[in-house]
Amino acid sequence: MTGSRETICVPNVELLRVTYEPESLMFPSNRKMIKTLSLEVSGTDRFPVIDVARCMSSGVLRFRHPTLEELRFVYAFVKAMSLVHPLLQEDKEGAPKWSKLMYFEPFIETVDVQWPPEIGKFHDLVAVTISHPPGQSYGEKGRSAPTKYAERPREETFVDVRINTNSNLRKCIMCEKEVHVEQAFSCGQCLAVVYCDSHCQKQHWKETHKSMCGLYKAMMEREEELVIKIFVFPCSAEQPCKWLESLGVHQKGMWRRKCNCYSHCPFGLLPVKGGLWDSWGGLDDNEYPRDSPFHNHLRDGISSPILLSGWSEYYSLRSLPLSSPVADILSHPLTVYYILTALNISSKNLLLKGKEVILHYLGPEGELDWLPAFAEISHLLNGSGNIHIVMVGPEVPTNLSGTTSGISSRVRVNLVRGIYQEEATYLPSPHVIVALNCGLDSHMSWGGALELIKSSSVPAFFTEQSEISCGNAKQVFRGAGLHITHPVTPNPFRSPVKMQGTSSNLPSYSNGFILGVNT
């Protein structure tokens, strides 16, 4: 940000400036920009204004309105910065008491920025890379830059690539025939899809895969970026039962929802034996979050919600060993908390003021048996504000519908059985709507819910497990007349455990990606 008196005068060089001016001086295109970015007023009726300053050879400054392309540049940069803002830290030790010194830890992030409708052009997404120190390359972090578009393979290129996995059965994406892993094929170019034989592979290529292979290849190349490497427990659950056995939690506590052994038991009705230790499957005392507050987390002597940027910070605050697998279950409550405190400005402000945030949680399933894990949200609130979660969905057991669970002092959960659009009029008005692992393209019942979300204009956030699911979700949103205002981004609190698809090898993680509308 700069003021007109501080503009650096370099002859014949144009500077793209952002200044604070009264709203009356704002150009219409700036008003659209400010509205889209949800920038707040500074002082008395002061808003950010974008213009271009040029110093003439005579030393005189000339000003002009920015072009649409220049506005798009500013929008992309500011939006990208807002998407990685949890990486911004406050230096409490180095700064004087009367000031706040902000700094960035070294990082590099590539995010997709989606244009608002008024400045959309050609494609609705653009990839923006933000790095610190400036100019840091992907090579310096030991990884390659993400490939947005990959070259399509030649039609005659078919390679018998055997899939290296420990699961027993896969399913052909073409004919849906189950095939043993040793007999399974995959595309020799993208390695993303599974076939039973070369005939199905060639047929699928002609029908659909030829146009998608390059995109799938790019998604497969991003797998290295999606892996959360800090953990030392096995992070691949190709065979869930064996994975749980390796951790010593198979058929125990909340982990019973992580395999099919208890699929006969309705969601929310798993037998409960004892307390928190039993809920976490008998893990050692230091391997799961205890029902206790975080200590020494005051800002200016005042309690406020703890802002988290990812698993490393959370595990450090809770003094959990990186061998603990609890992140796989905590992904759900911490994703909710991250949305409320990092992605949605209005809910964050309510919590900072000590008020209650009402959240509608759509389509709960396994979460109905993981409510003990949601108690961690209360401790992260750190004595500031309350959260009222209303879980609505057809999987809520009839005998639990209408009940309220005070899972902690600051978090309570209402359970409601039914379809959201049919029950919404009887529920308290929400500040935020959330649907995790929603599978928008897989369930026809989303149509009515999306129509209601559109008419209510309530901020709504969704998570999907893979990039291809996100692409399908975008089409569903467009069909419902909804514009994506929070573009698809990797969720810092996604489960670190890679999921195995029956017909696909694409990177897939529980709560892997976040996108939002009405934000």
UniProtKB/TrEMBL annotation:
Alphabetically ordered keywords of this record: Metal-binding, Zinc, Zinc-finger
One Pfam match: MSS51_C
Gene3D superfamilies: 6.10.140.2220
Single GO molecular function: zinc ion binding
Domain MYND-type, first and last residues per copy: 172-213
PROSITE patterns: ZF_MYND_1 (PS01360), ZF_MYND_2 (PS50865)
TM regions (residue ranges): none
PANTHER family the UniProt entry points to: MYND-TYPE DOMAIN-CONTAINING PROTEIN, ZINC ION BINDING PROTEIN
Protein name: MYND-type domain-containing protein
Organism: Manihot esculenta (Cassava)
